[in-house]
Design brief:
mainly beta, 5-stranded antiparallel β-sheet, about 0% helix
Length: about 200
């Protein structure tokens, strides 16, 4: 046992419980040094470092973001759900992106938080487009404007042929939420793949 700040322990936890993310832990090492760590989530600890000036530095966390481009049409089963062709960015662990020829593209939230979502598309004709939340069953073959309020995050109508539309939403999402680019059933194709973008990022 080593003495740390007058307390005999291998590790001293400062906080209310071992799962409190505001906790700090001071650990004594076998070589006589000490390590300071901060609770990062319900199971892990982030080891803090001390720079050359003596300041404690928190570990850099990659901000979670998924960004896609391109037109890949609709799911063959979930015929209102859009598919993208190119994955530009997929970083962090708060969002899981999955692409399926049958089901379309889905974005599953893994961590409670505030998320910002933007979906841009350009079609060959006028078209409804938008964002759905936790759409299941018949929702997946229902036009976005006909979804119930609890299932529709955003919807917009492109008022002219080849006109671009932007659907966006920012707000709190609990873990397990599933977001999709949701249009109309077997709608018109994207007219300009370069104008098709989807971004979801956790902002807090």
């Amino acid at each position: 046992m080593s003495v740390i700040s007058g307390l005999k322990a291998n590790a001293v936890t400062i906080g209310t419980s071992n799962t409190d993310t505001n906790n700090f832990q001071l650990r004594s090492n076998a070589d006589g040094t000490a390590t300071l760590a901060r609770k990062s989530d319900g199971s892990g600890w982030d080891v803090l470092t001390i720079d050359s000036s003596g300041y404690v530095r928190f570990p850099t966390t990659v901000q979670s973001m998924v960004r896609l481009t391109g037109s890949n049409g609709y799911g063959t089963t979930n015929t209102a759900i859009w598919r993208f062709t190119t994955q530009v960015t997929n970083q962090g662990t708060d969002i899981t992106y999955a692409s399926s020829a049958a089901n379309g593209d889905t974005f599953t939230v893994n961590t409670n938080g505030v998320y910002a979502i933007t979906y841009t598309n350009q079609f060959n004709a006028t078209q409804w487009m938008g964002l759905s939340l936790n759409a299941t069953g018949a929702d997946l073959t229902t036009n976005v404007y006909a979804l119930t309020a609890s299932k529709m995050l955003s919807s917009v109508y492109t008022s002219s042929a080849s006109g671009a539309g932007i659907a966006s939403w920012t707000g709190y999402l609990p873990a397990g939420s599933v977001v999709m680019a949701h249009n109309v059933v077997s709608g018109v194709a994207g007219g300009n793949p370069a104008a098709v973008n989807f971004t979801i990022t956790r902002v807090s």
